[in-house]
Amino acid sequence: MFPQARPTTWQPEAVEVARTTVDDAVAVLSGLRITALTGAGVSTDSGIPDYRGPDSPPRSPMTYQQFVGDEEFRRHYWARNHVGWQHVNRTAPNAGHRALVRLEERDILAGIITQNVDLLHEDAGSRNVIDLHGRYDRVICLSCARVISRAHLAERLDALNPGFLESVGDVADIEIAPDADAVIESTAHFRPAPCEFCGGMLKPEIVYFGENVPRERVERAFALVDSADALLVAGSSLTVMSGLRFVRHAADEGKPVVIVNRGITRGDKYATVKIDSGVTPVLEDLTRRL
């Protein structure tokens, strides 16, 4: 349901950053208007796994080409997704999400570009959010472009697959992968649903590997970076270019870049301040002190 980590040849390599504390971040960001770029690390305290944290297992991403070109891949995906999406649908924003809301209410935060599709920023009350990779609660037909809710599709999948959810057990007892895909093995008997309007192929309205983020969405994100004085990266390893490009752009424009993330990121060499820490306590501290 969530886009998994996009394939990359980048390998983590430590880069020394001189400024590494919350005090440093406060000194750099005080008096500035900020745009935030958020990744999976913002949502880990809500119970959604991250992609590349120090303790995260390796993942094998499904590509757009596999999804549209292989019926078995699609069946396997939708079966696991039908279990896993419930987990994300039950999650709630955490204190880190709420800290960003308070910064926006005080006009310190211009807005958020998020690589997540969990909608937790919106649920927390953030108003200016660009969902860079789409959102988990909608499904699109690749033939007629009709968009339906994921909840409506769940009803149709339940009808097509009576007893399936009961057969795999309580979602609380199943490992949920970082893309909210449930780790279950027996999916050969699952029946995916076609578009109810034209019979076409349904796909979550998210950006898959092998797809590009829509151009207008990228342009709005660059404009949001340009509208602020600094960029705050929270909970992203910046491994893929879809997020890293905004860090590069801010640095090229001479704007301070503050990165808060557990572990090495691909953007560390552009960072004015790099705080190697969990996201939630740092965002709360910044909100109190800015």
Automatic annotation (TrEMBL):
<feature type="binding site">
    <location>
        <begin position="235"/>
        <end position="237"/>
    </location>
    <ligand>
        <name>NAD(+)</name>
    </ligand>
</feature>
<dbReference type="GO" id="GO:0008270">
    <property type="term" value="F:zinc ion binding"/>
</dbReference>
<feature type="active site" description="Proton acceptor">
    <location>
        <position position="133"/>
    </location>
</feature>
<feature type="binding site">
    <location>
        <position position="195"/>
    </location>
    <ligand>
        <name>Zn(2+)</name>
    </ligand>
</feature>
<keyword id="KW-0862">Zinc</keyword>
<feature type="binding site">
    <location>
        <begin position="115"/>
        <end position="118"/>
    </location>
    <ligand>
        <name>NAD(+)</name>
    </ligand>
</feature>
<dbReference type="InterPro" id="IPR026590">
    <property type="entry name" value="Ssirtuin_cat_dom"/>
</dbReference>
<dbReference type="InterPro" id="IPR026591">
    <property type="entry name" value="Sirtuin_cat_small_dom_sf"/>
</dbReference>
<feature type="binding site">
    <location>
        <begin position="39"/>
        <end position="59"/>
    </location>
    <ligand>
        <name>NAD(+)</name>
    </ligand>
</feature>
<dbReference type="Pfam" id="PF02146">
    <property type="entry name" value="SIR2"/>
</dbReference>
<feature type="binding site">
    <location>
        <position position="198"/>
    </location>
    <ligand>
        <name>Zn(2+)</name>
    </ligand>
</feature>
<dbReference type="GO" id="GO:0070403">
    <property type="term" value="F:NAD+ binding"/>
</dbReference>
<dbReference type="GO" id="GO:0017136">
    <property type="term" value="F:histone deacetylase activity, NAD-dependent"/>
</dbReference>
<keyword id="KW-0808">Transferase</keyword>
<dbReference type="InterPro" id="IPR003000">
    <property type="entry name" value="Sirtuin"/>
</dbReference>
<keyword id="KW-0520">NAD</keyword>
<protein>
    <recommendedName>
        <fullName>NAD-dependent protein deacetylase</fullName>
        <ecNumber>2.3.1.286</ecNumber>
    </recommendedName>
</protein>
<dbReference type="InterPro" id="IPR050134">
    <property type="entry name" value="NAD-dep_sirtuin_deacylases"/>
</dbReference>
<dbReference type="InterPro" id="IPR026587">
    <property type="entry name" value="Sirtuin_class_II"/>
</dbReference>
<feature type="domain" description="Deacetylase sirtuin-type">
    <location>
        <begin position="15"/>
        <end position="290"/>
    </location>
</feature>
<feature type="binding site">
    <location>
        <position position="279"/>
    </location>
    <ligand>
        <name>NAD(+)</name>
    </ligand>
</feature>
<comment type="function">
    <text>NAD-dependent protein deacetylase which modulates the activities of several enzymes which are inactive in their acetylated form.</text>
</comment>
<feature type="binding site">
    <location>
        <begin position="261"/>
        <end position="263"/>
    </location>
    <ligand>
        <name>NAD(+)</name>
    </ligand>
</feature>
<keyword id="KW-0963">Cytoplasm</keyword>
<keyword id="KW-0479">Metal-binding</keyword>
<feature type="binding site">
    <location>
        <position position="141"/>
    </location>
    <ligand>
        <name>Zn(2+)</name>
    </ligand>
</feature>
<dbReference type="InterPro" id="IPR029035">
    <property type="entry name" value="DHS-like_NAD/FAD-binding_dom"/>
</dbReference>
<dbReference type="GO" id="GO:0005737">
    <property type="term" value="C:cytoplasm"/>
</dbReference>
<comment type="similarity">
    <text>Belongs to the sirtuin family. Class II subfamily.</text>
</comment>
<feature type="binding site">
    <location>
        <position position="144"/>
    </location>
    <ligand>
        <name>Zn(2+)</name>
    </ligand>
</feature>
